[in-house]
Specification:
The chain has about 350 residues and is an alpha/beta fold. It contains ten helices and 15 strands.
Amino acid sequence: MKKLRLAIIGCGSITKHRHAPEAKQNPNVELVAVCDRKLEHAKAVAEKFKVENVYDDYEKMLKEIKPDAVVVATPNYLHADATIKALKEGAHVLCEKPMATTEDECRMMVETAKEMGKFLMIAHNQRLNIAHKKAKEVIQSGELGKVLSFKTTFGHGGPESWSSDKPDTWFFHKEAASFGAMGDLGVHKIDLMRFLLGEEFVEAAAFVTTLSKKYPNGQPIDVDDNAVCILKTQSGAIGTLTASWTYPGSEDNSTVIYCERGSITLYADPKFSMIIRYANGQKAYFELDTMQTNERQTKSGVVDEFIDCILTNTPPKISGEEGLKTMKVVFACFESAKTGRIVKIDY
């Protein structure tokens, strides 16, 4: 079978540690080109993964290479532009999270994919974790009854220790990132909870703020490093979502879902990725998989899922439309933090 010709735009840490190695491991993929506005970053990835074509201009790369598919892993402010241009050149696109920096950009990405007849997938890899998939099955089965509440957290010590341009990383600059911890980590958990619960969030209240992070010159960064949100679903379930770049020395990527007849705890135990605690006192332990971290890389499955969708002509479940719904909640949380009010989310 002819291999899919894949190009990657953006050669930072996420490409070095996940997208490029996962592309090289997929037998149906030929990694034909890499691009980064910092040419040295693109050259480093090309050398490590034996990629022949190296660019610092993605428009030029798209026109000359004409790839079948593209991974967009740039700083956030370029997600929409790079995605739309790749779609218009006839490529399917896998775009990193957060999908884009405004709702209009997200919508334009979705509309362009439809117009061009190409797939747009957003890299919300937490949907692909085995324990998350298993938890969704348990919730849908009704075994534990109705979901009443939840708490979900994604926090670590910050991107500056992992980013390719550390210590003054683009993640800390509003013009490049638009969002801080909320857009970097919180967006993952919003998408995950939408997936697990199988319904939309309709109201949001949030504190989104900067508590600790500073630039190398000692000035506070101009994006958020902490967010705590209260979210309400269509069915009335309420829960908390926390995103933080100020959990030094540890990472918390856990979720607990409280139901009428028990609870599900995910990725809070070092051995058991899912624990069910029943109302009658019984417990069930599941040793399914481990949560990948910046320090401990495991295969995310995102590139394989993307390639499989293209080869089987199956629209991705983590579609641009899904990405837009997740981003609506992100924007609502920022609006709530700015206004001090509960924000209704309109779909």
